[in-house]
Automatic annotation (TrEMBL):
CDD domains: MoeA. SMART domains: MoCF_biosynth. This is Molybdopterin molybdenumtransferase. Keywords: Magnesium, Metal-binding, Molybdenum, Molybdenum cofactor biosynthesis, Transferase. It comes from Flagellimonas hadalis. It holds the Pfam family MoeA_C. Residues 170-308 form the MoaB/Mog domain. The lineage of its organism: Bacteria, Pseudomonadati, Bacteroidota, Flavobacteriia, Flavobacteriales.
């Protein structure tokens, strides 16, 4: 048995051979850059107008209006002292421009431009290199591409990006009692639901699973299922069969397949019977079968490993602190990740903390961490991870 921080440290310490690939810009959302990106030119490349208005030469309140420059135009406009041109947002400002005045503060009468106020030098001009200089570091290796990053890479004209590949994931569910939704079930059987949560949470964080397999609680079948699954994945997620029951065959079956155990059992609630193992550059998590345990273990342990395997510079869900909306005491006897709801800047710990109870997790949006034996008052700060 390891503590939560030991389990996280073991995951963090894994050395992984990362692979790189080239992806079109439009398909790189959620990937991490596999090399530093330097700006190929100054951004912006030329001084341009931040407003629709008038480019002014000299600082006056009256100008001779001598022409117009639209965005995307390349013709050189020459301005002399006391002259102005009509200009539009993003258009290159003429060489001798002192300032741009927004059109709302101007009026024009028979070829003369009048300003409502005195302009200031440099006003409303976006300077060449104001955002980035040529050769400057834009993003370091490991930067994860969110929508603003895609926008910036696009503005640099980069059509393809070098990114780290993401791991291929397979899912195995175990349990004689499990029947797929939509099929008839006999007395004592239940519907299989974990694989939907696991596939969903993979998708939520930008990962995909390739194959999903269901195997019976039988040592040989489990060995064979794991052998097959490991043929085509980097990360294998097994649900159930990892506890101490007579029908829990996952641990010996992993061992028989040459997977080395890195930890088994974490001092936590839910999700105590969590297993993590490795075979060369492949990783296996055996998640406890109880639905809430399995998902909690995903958020806490599987997600950081998948992100590390994808070359992310930072991994795991960030922790935020919120004040409790009520008093709470953790008397579960273990450090606990509690199903919780963050709302209006406060956190409520929900009823229904059992490992099998998924409705409370579904209605909440966070996991709140409360250490064993801790008594909290209303307003005490609690560490929370937002899960939706
Ligand atoms: P296990 O870890 O295999 O002992 O399973 C613990 C509990 O979780 C049992 O009540 C199982 O029936 C339930 N369970 C295991 N796997 C699943 C699954 N894929 N979907 C829904 N419930 C499951
Ligand atoms: Mg089972």
């Amino acid at each position: 048995m390891v503590t939560i921080s030991e389990a996280l440290r073991i995951i963090d310490e894994q050395k992984i051979n990362l692979k790189s690939q080239t992806l079109p810009l439009g398909e790189s959302l959620g990937y991490a850059l596999s090399k530093d990106t330097l700006s190929p030119f100054h951004v912006p490349e030329f001084d341009n107008s931040a407003m629709d208005g008038y480019a002014l030469c000299g600082l006056y309140q009256e100008y001779r209006l001598v022409g117009e420059v639209a965005a995307g135009e390349s013709k050189e406009v020459r301005l002399s002292d006391g002259e102005a041109v009509r200009i539009f947002t993003g258009a290159k400002v003429p060489h001798a421009t002192s300032a741009v005045m927004m059109q709302e503060k101007t009026s024009v009468e028979s070829g003369t431009l009048f300003l409502d106020e005195m302009p200031r030098i440099g006003q409303n001009i976006r300077k060449r290199g104001g955002q980035l200089s040529e050769g400057q570091l834009v993003f370091g290796k490991g930067h994860v591409l969110a929508p603003p990053s895609l926008s910036l890479m696009g503005s640099l004209g980069l059509e393809h990006l070098e990114v780290f590949s993401k791991p291929r994931v397979n899912i195995i569910t175990t349990g004689n009692e499990l029947v797929p939704p939509g099929q008839p079930k006999a007395e004592g059987q239940i519907y299989e639901s974990n694989s939907y949560a696991i596939a969903g949470v993979l998708q939520q964080f930008g990962f995909q699973h390739q194959h999903k397999m269901q195997i019976k609680d039988d040592l040989e079948a489990t060995k064979k299922g794991i052998k097959n699954a490991l043929e085509s994945c980097d990360v294998l997620l097994v649900s159930g069969g990892i506890s101490v029951g007579d029908y829990d065959f996952v641990r010996p079956a992993l061992e028989a397949n040459g997977v080395d155990e890195l930890f088994y059992k974490v001092l936590q609630k839910p999700g105590k019977p969590l297993y993590f193992g490795r075979r060369t550059n492949q990783f296996v998590f055996a998640l406890p079968g109880n639905p809430a345990s399995s998902l909690t273990c995903f958020y806490m342990y599987v997600l950081p490993l998948l992100q590390k395997f994808s070359g992310y510079g930072k991994v795991g869900l960030p922790t935020y602190q919120f004040p409790l909306s009520h008093a709470y005491e953790n008397n579960f006897g273990r450090p606990s990740f509690l199903k919780a709801h963050v709302f209006n800047g406060k956190v409520e710990i929900l009823d229904g903390q059992g490992s099998s109870m998924i409705q409370s997790m579904a209605l909440g949006n966070a996991l709140a961490f409360v250490d064993d034996g801790i008594q909290l008052k209303e307003g005490d700060m609690v560490d929370c991870k937002l899960i939706s």
